[in-house]
Design brief:
With 529 residues, the protein is an alpha/beta fold. The protein contains 14 helices and 17 strands. Helix 3 packs across helix 14 and helix 7 packs parallel to helix 12. It starts with 42 loop residues before the first strand and ends in a 21-residue tail after the last helix.
């Protein structure tokens, strides 16, 4: 039968020691401090989960303390910055109570319990009930207005903190903002402006494509639709809507002379959530299994060729039975909804061999199936396997007869488990448009700009060294990202804060000491005080 397979993952949690090739001033010496031309006395932070300090799949107090916005506020205090009020969660468990009942959509944080074997991390939720009640309203005002889950247009939406909006279908408000919105009718931007900020940070737009990406493309590309009220939670925001909203936000924030720093967006598919699981983790198959599948898939390739379509399936590698040799691994079997449905011709071609019933089953099962791919030439073509999908690969699909029930091998991974090349292309187009808007607005308003797209590219390609540390975009071992594969670790947030400080210095002539990322942990333990 099929082997119990997993993909390889480096498990060493030690960080590489190397000489510094980063110019971070993170270790020593007295640095003269100056605000330059900026006034940090009233700093307001706007954004989504990153601004809030979200980490390890939850918002919790320690994560909020180690978020980049709080680190910035602490450094701003060296040059005249004032207090920075945060709408803290009640505990370090994470999760939310809705009228005293835990909501499964807002679970506790996760932690690394160890490794199940040399290649499989054991990531588990912390135990204990959440204690943060959504309807126990906090009294502000709050300087940190980062709202997990917020898209760009949510920041200007009145009633985004209305408790009644949580009961609508779909919800029209956000439980995190419900906790600390100044009034039920207010908006995030209104609560920001009410405090007369002298300096602001704005990092927004990631969620405008993240829901689509993290759901495996289960959503709609709303490009061309100017009405966000009609969008689903997993949809891609129309770039024209983003442009209008972003201009509105910055015009409002700068109307009274406030200065600020903004950040552009990395490509979502470069995050560990999308890059950890390879497209081809299936080990060489038993010879009989490989021969049977190659025969069926080869026949479907011939059907595709007859319709002037490219081949959909690779030739699968069989195990030669020699433990001294290592065969090539095989790609995952996936559904691609952009493919023409070949169910009818597959059924017709295989009926004489398999019989009408089995042939019809195979036709429906593989009509839009193909093997996942990663090709760099002549043109890049890459499918991304979502991090949670690793738990599905090789399992048995209930209700499907053998031998067609092994997930990812004989039973295709469904749309929500994979971000296909075509879906990535839609995300890239939208992200590029958002970044053009951010760049244009930053230039027009003279704002500091953090190039997180370039930072992520550096993390992916060799990583970043500072002092005796090395940070990369690798899951768990890279030190930059938390266990959810999307949000930074405490060390990652510290590094981000330094990049904001550099951009501020370059634009406003300030001199504000950076922090040492090495003083921040890369994993939170199971128990936090």
């Amino acid at each position: 039968m099929i082997k119990n397979f997993k993909w390889l993952l480096l498990v060493s949690l030690s960080l590489s020691i190397a000489c510094s090739d980063d110019d971070s001033d993170s270790t020593g010496g007295e640095v003269p401090v100056s605000p330059g031309s900026a006034d940090f006395s009233k700093y307001i932070a706007l954004g989504d989960s990153f601004a809030a300090g979200y980490s390890d799949n939850a918002l919790f107090k320690k994560g909020q303390e180690n978020g980049y916005t709080n680190i910035l506020a602490q450094q701003f205090q060296l040059v005249g910055g004032g207090a920075f009020a945060i709408p803290y969660m009640n505990d370090n468990i994470g999760g939310l109570l809705f009228g005293g009942a835990p909501n499964p959509s807002f679970g506790p944080r996760i932690y690394l319990r160890g490794f199940l074997n040399a290649s499989t991390p054991n990531v588990q939720p912390v135990t204990g009930p959440p204690t943060t009640e959504v309807f126990a309203h906090l009294t502000g005002p709050f300087n940190n207005l980062g709202v997990p889950g917020a898209k760009s247009f949510h920041l200007i939406t009145p009633g985004y903190g209305n408790p009644g909006g949580l009961a609508t279908t779909p919800p029209t408000s956000n439980p995190y903002f419900v906790r600390f919105a100044s009034t039920p009718a207010t908006s995030v931007i209104a609560d920001a402006i009410a405090q007369s900020p002298t300096f602001f940070s704005l990092w927004i737009g990631g969620n405008d494509v993240l829901g689509y990406a993290s759901s495996g493309g289960v959503g709609v590309n709303q490009t061309g639709n100017p009405n966000p009220a009609t969008y689903g939670s997993n949809d891609i925001t129309d770039p024209a809507v983003f442009e209008s909203v972003y201009n509105n936000l910055v015009n409002t924030l700068t109307a009274n002379g406030a200065k600020g720093v903004v950040a552009n967006l990395p490509y979502i598919n470069t995050l560990p959530y999308f890059t950890t699981v390879p497209y081809n983790p299936v080990p060489a198959l038993p010879p009989a299994n490989a021969a049977q599948l190659n025969q069926i898939f080869g026949a479907i390739n011939q059907i595709a060729a007859a319709g002037n379509m490219p081949a959909r399936f690779s030739v699968l590698t069989a195990d030669d039975g020699n433990p001294a040799t290592v065969e090539a691994t095989n790609p995952l079997l996936i559904i691609d909804e952009t493919l023409p449905n070949l169910a009818a011709p597959i059924t017709s071609a295989l009926t004489p061999v398999l019989g009408a019933t089995t042939a019809g089953f195979v036709g429906n099962l593989y009509g839009r199936a193909r093997h996942s791919k990663k090709v760099t030439t002549p043109a890049p073509f890459v499918d991304y396997i979502l991090l949670p999908t690793r738990a599905l690969i090789g399992t048995t699909q209930a209700g499907v007869p053998a031998p067609f029930n092994t997930v990812g091998v004989t039973y295709p991974l469904q749309d929500g488990a994979v971000l296909t090349n075509a879906e990535v292309a839609d995300i890239k187009v939208a992200t590029d448009a958002y970044n053009t808007t951010i760049q244009n607005v930053a230039t027009a308003k003279g704002l500091a700009l953090v190039d997180t797209k370039a930072i992520m590219a550096q993390l992916l390609n060799g990583g970043i060294r500072f002092g005796n540390y090395h940070m990369t975009a690798s899951y768990i071992t890279g030190g930059t990202f938390s266990l959810d594969g999307i949000h930074p670790s405490a060390r990652g947030y510290a590094y981000i804060a330094n990049q904001f400080l550099k951009a501020i210095e370059a634009t406003y002539g300030s001199s504000i000491p950076e922090v040492n990322p090495g003083n921040y942990q890369i994993q939170y333990p199971q128990t936090l005080n």
